[in-house]
Write a sequence for this structure.
């Protein structure tokens, strides 16, 4: 583990924290991220994250050190764009490789841009800084100061440390050599967040329907005749969760128990087994 990660781990383990200690660890709010995703995504790789704040299923942690990886190669496998809310701490190295430092982050981003892929970086609108990405293919300045969330591990040491957010003028830098739009643009903060809120609302609406349609036990039709009459106790327990099944003729009850047993052997979740058994019992009741 590099020294940056060691210091971060010690910080996380503290019983109380001060706001000034958060440093690189301010989190991008979900509505802001999804607004950026709507404009420049799909974003599928988070370049600077950990398991508690990653915005994408695929991500690099500080221990992974994104600056030693080929992001373009990863994006070629994932099929989307990369997102970064980079650390602003001073440049530091581990085993002669930079792990932080905005100058080095921007240099690596440009190198990846040359290899292909899109890299979308949320940064401070600090045009006087030496790291400012003058060679980005597009800069979208955000009208209105943007806020960030505290880390999930943050515990305020006292009332003065209760977070109100970190606010600063921001911009979105896009590195993509196939970009054909303008070099400079502007986006209203509230519009950006509204896009994100809309995307989140759609996901919340779709989530239960997606689960219902994808976590269904497989159909077994027709169910073969079974000479077996001895089933594990768990099969009987699941059978009893569907009271209507007990009213069917004995031969159909045995078929249902066989069906339950096969689903258990296939690793189907308990809730899905019960739902499938209810459907099967209803169908058998209609034809019995």
């Amino acid at each position: 583990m590099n020294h940056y990660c060691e210091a971060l781990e010690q910080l996380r383990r503290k019983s109380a924290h001060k706001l000034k200690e958060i440093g690189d660890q301010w989190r991008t709010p979900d509505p802001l991220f999804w607004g950026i995703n709507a404009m420049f995504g799909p974003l599928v790789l988070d370049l600077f994250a950990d398991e508690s704040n990653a915005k994408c299923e695929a991500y690099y942690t500080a221990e992974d050190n994104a600056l030693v990886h080929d992001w373009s190669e990863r994006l070629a496998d994932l099929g989307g764009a990369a997102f970064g809310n980079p650390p602003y701490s001073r440049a530091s190295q581990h085993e002669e490789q930079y792990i932080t430092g905005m100058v080095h982050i921007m240099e690596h981003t440009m190198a990846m841009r040359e290899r292909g892929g899109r890299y979308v970086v949320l940064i401070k609108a600090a045009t006087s800084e030496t790291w400012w990405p003058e060679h980005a293919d597009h800069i979208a300045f955000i009208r209105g100061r943007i806020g960030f969330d505290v880390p999930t591990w943050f515990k305020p040491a006292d009332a003065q440390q209760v977070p109100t957010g970190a606010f600063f003028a921001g911009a979105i830098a896009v590195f993509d050599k196939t970009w054909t739009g303008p070099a400079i643009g502007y986006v209203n903060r509230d519009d950006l967040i509204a896009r994100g809120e809309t995307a989140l609302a759609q996901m919340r609406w779709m989530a239960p329907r997606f689960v219902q349609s994808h976590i269904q036990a497989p159909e077994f039709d027709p169910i073969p005749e079974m000479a077996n009459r001895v089933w594990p106790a768990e099969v009987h327990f699941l059978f009893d969760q569907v009271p209507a099944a007990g009213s069917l003729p004995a031969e159909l009850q045995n078929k249902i128990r066989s069906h339950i047993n096969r689903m258990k052997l296939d690793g189907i979740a308990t809730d899905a087994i019960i739902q499938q058994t209810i459907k099967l019992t209803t169908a058998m009741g209609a034809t019995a």
